[in-house]
Design goal:
Blueprint lengths: L1 H8 L14 H23 L1 H5 L10 H4 L4 H10 L4 H16 L5 H21 L7 H22 L6 H33 L6 H9 L1
Keywords: Membrane, Transmembrane, Transmembrane helix
Protein name: Energy-coupling factor transport system substrate-specific component
InterPro entries: ABC_thiamin-permease_prd
């Protein structure tokens, strides 16, 4: 009887926190990343006419440069490594860009951010938020680029010729893999090596590799 009583009254160890649960530090860092990316997005938009002009020789090729606008979601996911990080960071970046001022309008800018973040989020979801290597980052960038292309073609280029649609879509996918996949992976890896991400799984994983 006493043994049973001791078993019943013995304090239980606290349950380990879910690796998918967002902490306050996750929200803060994701917000900071989103704000910083939003300023970059705004600046990229200011120079967009001049930046994209050399690519007008093949209409649709400019989508490869536009993929810089989808990089925030991939970077956020690689750093935070939690469900929803890609959508959160990309949407915050789009909202900041819209608030500062953008030629494409506030609502459509934020809407694009949500769609592009979702494109990256789906890829990380397919890997159950367990794989964070360069190939997956490139796939996420390509997914965000594809989402951008679909959104742009529907809202900004309806009724375009097949050639333009094909070039724009392929450019967005390839550009997304490189600009929004490789570059965020390098950035996240570089941040982890400095020790700035020690409170995150991304930072601890980098430390184990070293």
């Amino acid at each position: 009887m006493s043994t049973r009583t001791e078993t019943l009254t013995q304090p239980q160890a606290p349950a380990a926190p879910s690796r998918f649960r967002w902490r306050v530090v996750d929200i803060v860092v994701a917000s900071v990343l989103g704000v910083a990316a939003g300023i970059v997005f705004w600046a990229w938009g200011l120079g967009w006419s001049a930046i994209s002009a050399p690519f007008q020789f093949l209409p649709g090729l400019q989508a490869s440069l536009a993929t810089l606008w989808v990089a925030a979601g991939v970077l956020g996911a690689l750093v935070i490594r939690k469900p929803g990080a890609a959508i959160f960071v990309e949407t915050v970046a789009a909202a900041v860009s819209a608030l500062v001022g953008t030629q494409w309008g506030g609502f459509l800018t934020i809407e694009a951010g949500i769609v592009q973040g979702l494109g990256a989020e789906i890829i990380f979801l397919l890997f159950f938020y367990r794989v964070w290597n360069l190939p997956v980052a490139m796939l996420a960038g390509a997914g965000a680029g594809l989402a951008m292309a679909i959104n742009d073609l529907v809202l900004w280029y309806p009724g375009s010729a097949f050639g333009f649609v094909a070039v724009y879509t392929i450019s967005a996918i390839v550009g997304g893999a490189i600009v929004a996949g490789v570059l965020p992976w390098l950035a996240a890896t570089g941040l982890a090596r400095t020790g700035a991400l020690d409170r995150f799984a991304s930072g601890r994983a980098s430390a184990r590799r070293v």
